[in-house]
């Protein structure tokens, strides 16, 4: 179902078969694990068994002596470099921390942190050699919860880490890496006007992105210093730049070849194995492949941060929000860098609040370094805000959607971080939700209905596209954005729309870092938005060149040729050539036509809102929650390929359901993850899920040629809150901790009965 508000197009808005679909269906697509090179060795990584420990000594001599072992590396094999800060595209990190996350030097700060790497002629020999590496540890007490880590006297993960307070270094050693604050209006005056105030605390567990394909990397370091890396990554250029910095090797001598990717959701931006594979290759003289096991993925790569959130909101007697305050502390894992800025930006962005303050903290704990996960830090914020908003609506006796509509952000609303919204679709998305049949279905015993809304912004960043016209009128489109959810098709369709071609006439290809201009990561809801814009510009370039070719062919001035509906027309006569007809004559008019598009759009232009209606049924004896119905409405700006937009909406919703009810990293007091497999870390299966109904709302983004808004991240933001509100509707008990496991549901029911 689509609610349209915008222009009509010939290609955009249709549903062609994705260009890479057949290869993926029949198994021809090449993923990172499929790479095979002559003379290739197989690597394994030794990881710390302790969550917090000093590394006193590493002895690799016995491992290196095992027959079949060709190389062993530790942090001592990394070149000495000056520490600096790096922008990965979805966050900034210190080089020291990035290097220690690749191979620990002086300290291990989470169980599973890499300590050494081995390359051998087969995997079993590599595993045998790992067991012979002797590491002398001084075990230290771990800290695995954010509020515990923030306490005075808590064990310090990094003796050199000092707190940055509101942009200024305090010089105080602490596990709190930074504190950010946004202020809007007069908070005290706002709460003084409030007739009703609700303040609640919330806790969310660490959860994983849950991609199917584990991390992998194959590296070949040639004698001339050229390094080639084949890997599954969300950003080939980001991977190249990280490897260059970690290894102190020129980017001009590194080529990253992105493979097809079996899921990422933000978790495959940081490099883990690539530098280790490269070092092993240089030392052995052979190409080296590394693939993580599933426990390695869980224990040694970046999940989303656990969090503690406190939200206070006030309304006047009519139900208008007058003040809002949020305190949010996020677990960065072993190294600083939780996406606290995004959380602070999104926390109140669905609402027009005249007086607000947000304080957000980046806190290190003895867990894997956190990584982006689909709208990083926004779901935790929305879980808290939407529960408080629901409670305010209830206290006022107002319908929960009507209350949200009354307070919804719209064009001209100033966010707490100071940004003023351009044209947005928050109101339209909420209205689509209210008009949906799901909102009117009668509920039975032990059933409840919840609603919630969430926000995510577009990041812009850099994208490059080039396009070469073939003599049959098809076009080879080259771009650098990893295709995770059908972006080859969405980019090709935007290119085709400009030139009046069919989507099938475009041959899109994702290429290596030597074959296209710099392109930032696939993340932040930017690819269809930004790389699609680059494709639009490349198509405009092709069109301009083709007009010149038509003018040359007809021997008329170029301003006498116009392009309309896929054809070139001479204004002064009846001469007319279709794009394909003119393409067949390129040799007669000067040879190849190659267009290019290079863009760097402003970040945050537009943004997307997603909203949910969720119906649940609860078993009061066992605490089991069954999701009966689930509806998601989302503003896509303009849905380039509606099927893929619906897929993103459904995929984000499913991950939100898992986050709400099942998923969590379960840690022992010693900092050991006790459920590091898909047997024990339970993501939803088809048996856990209802059919998810989608409503695409289209309020064109004024900051894009086709009105596109990124759609990949907003749908994961509201489900946890919507499910919590639905559980309240079924039981009268509000759950403020994720996941809302059966034992927590039963405990909430028992506490309610006791009162």
Characterise this structure:
This protein is an alpha+beta fold and 755 residues long. Among the domains are: 35-142 and 209-300, Aldehyde oxidase/xanthine dehydrogenase, a/b hammerhead (Aldehyde Oxidoreductase, domain 3); 428-454 and 604-755, 2-Layer Sandwich (Aldehyde Oxidoreductase, domain 4), CATH 3.30.365; 460-599, Aldehyde Oxidoreductase, domain 4 (2-Layer Sandwich), CATH 3.30.365. Helices cover 27% and strands 26% of the residues. The strands form 7 sheets. It has an 8-stranded mixed β-sheet. Strand 15, helix 7 and strand 16 (254-258) form a beta-alpha-beta unit. The model has no long low-confidence stretch (mean pLDDT 96).
Quickly describe the structure:
With 755 residues, the chain is α+β, with helices and mostly antiparallel strands. It contains 20 helices and 32 strands.
List keywords for this structure.
Aldehyde Oxidoreductase, domain 4, Aldehyde Oxidoreductase, domain 3, 8-stranded mixed beta sheet, 20 helices, 27% helix, 7-stranded mixed beta sheet, alpha+beta, 755 residues
Shape, principal axes of CA atoms:
globular
CATH class of the domain at 35-142 and 209-300: Alpha Beta
Assign a percent range to the helix content: 25-40%
Number of helices: 20
Strand order of the largest sheet: 11-10-12-20-19-18-13-32
Rg, please?
Answer: 27 Å
CATH topology of the domain at 35-142 and 209-300: Aldehyde Oxidoreductase, domain 3
Distance between termini?
45 Å
CATH superfamily of the domain at 35-142 and 209-300: Aldehyde oxidase/xanthine dehydrogenase, a/b hammerhead
Chain-averaged pLDDT: 96
What class would the helix/strand composition place it in? alpha+beta
């Amino acid at each position: 179902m689509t609610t349209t508000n915008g222009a009509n197009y010939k290609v955009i808005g249709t549903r062609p078969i994705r260009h890479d679909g057949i290869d993926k269906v029949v198994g021809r697509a090449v993923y990172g694990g499929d790479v095979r090179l002559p003379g290739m060795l197989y690597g394994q990584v030794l990881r710390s068994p302790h969550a917090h420990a000093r590394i006193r000594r590493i002895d690799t001599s016995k491992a290196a002596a095992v027959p079949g072992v060709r190389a062993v590396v530790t942090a001592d094999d990394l070149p000495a470099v000056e520490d600096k800060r790096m922008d990965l595209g979805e966050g900034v990190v210190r080089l020291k921390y990035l290097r220690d996350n690749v191979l620990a030097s002086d300290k291990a700060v989470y169980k599973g942190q890499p300590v050494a790497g081995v390359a051998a002629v087969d995997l079993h020999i590599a595993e045998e050699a790992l067991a012979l590496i002797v590491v002398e540890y001084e075990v230290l007490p771990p800290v695995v919860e954010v509020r515990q880590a923030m306490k005075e006297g808590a064990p310090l993960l990094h003796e050199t880490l000092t707190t940055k307070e509101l942009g200024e270094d305090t010089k105080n050693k602490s596990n709190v890496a930074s504190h950010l604050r946004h202020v809007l209006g007069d908070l005290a005056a706002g709460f003084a006007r409030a007739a009703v105030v609700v303040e609640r605390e919330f806790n969310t567990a660490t959860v994983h992105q849950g991609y199917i394909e584990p991390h992998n990397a194959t590296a070949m370091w040639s004698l001339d210093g050229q390094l080639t890396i084949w890997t599954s990554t969300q950003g080939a250029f980001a991977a190249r730049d990280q490897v260059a910095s970690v290894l102190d090797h020129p980017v001009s001598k590194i080529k990253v070849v992105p493979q097809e990717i079996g899921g990422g959701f933000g978790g495959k931006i940081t490099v883990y194995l690539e530098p280790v594979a490269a070092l092993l290759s240089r030392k052995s003289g052979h190409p080296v492949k590394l693939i993580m096991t599933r426990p390695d993925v869980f224990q040694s790569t970046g999940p989303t941060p656990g969090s503690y959130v406190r939200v206070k909101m006030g309304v006047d007697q009519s139900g208008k929000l007058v003040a809002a305050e949020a305190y949010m502390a996020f677990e960065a894992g072993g190294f600083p860098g939780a996406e606290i800025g995004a959380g602070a930006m999104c926390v109140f962005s669905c609402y027009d609040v005249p007086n607000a303050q947000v304080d957000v903290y980046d806190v290190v704990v003895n867990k894997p370094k956190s990584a982006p996960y689909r709208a990083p830090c926004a779901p935790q914020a929305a879980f808290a805000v939407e529960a408080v908003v629901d409670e305010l609506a209830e206290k006022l006796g107002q319908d929960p959607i009507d209350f949200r509509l009354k307070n919804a952000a719209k064009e001209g609303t100033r966010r707490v971080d100071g940004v003023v919204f351009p044209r947005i679709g928050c109101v339209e998305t909420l209205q689509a939700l209210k008009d949906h049949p799901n909102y009117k279905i009668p509920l039975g015993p032990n059933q409840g209905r919840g609603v919630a809304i969430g926000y995510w912004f577009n990041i812009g960043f850099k994208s490059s596209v080039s396009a070469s016209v073939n003599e049959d009128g098809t076009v080879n489109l080259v771009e650098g954005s990893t295709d995770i959810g059908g972006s080859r098709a969405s980019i090709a369709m935007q290119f085709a729309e400009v030139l009046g071609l069919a989507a099938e006439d475009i041959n899109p290809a994702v290429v290596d870092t030597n074959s296209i201009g710099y392109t930032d990561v696939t993340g932040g809801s930017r690819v269809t938005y930004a790389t699609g814009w680059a494709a639009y510009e490349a198509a405009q370039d092709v069109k301009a060149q083709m007009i010149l070719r038509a003018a040359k062919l007809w021997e008329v001035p170029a301003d006498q040729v116009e392009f309309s509906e896929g054809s070139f027309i001479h204004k002064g006569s009846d001469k007319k050539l279709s794009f394909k007809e003119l393409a067949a004559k390129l040799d007669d008019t000067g040879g190849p036509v190659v267009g290019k598009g290079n863009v760097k759009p402003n970040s945050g232009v537009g943004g997307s809102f997603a909203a949910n209606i969720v119906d649940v049924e609860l078993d009061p004896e066992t605490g089991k929650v069954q999701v009966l119905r689930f509806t998601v409405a989302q503003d896509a700006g303009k849905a380039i390929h509606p099927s893929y937009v619906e897929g993103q909406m459904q995929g984000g919703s499913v991950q939100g359901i898992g986050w709400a009810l099942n998923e969590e990293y379960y840690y022992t007091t010693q900092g050991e993850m006790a459920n590091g497999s898909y047997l024990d870390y339970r993501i939803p299966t088809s048996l856990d899920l209802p059919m998810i109904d989608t409503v695409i709302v289209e309020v064109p983004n004024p900051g894009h040629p086709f009105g596109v808004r990124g759609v990949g991240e907003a749908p994961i933001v509201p489900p946890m809150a919507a499910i919590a509100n639905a559980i309240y509707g079924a039981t009268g008990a509000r759950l403020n901790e994720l996941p809302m496991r059966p034992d927590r549901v039963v405990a909430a029911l028992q506490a309610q009965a006791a009162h």
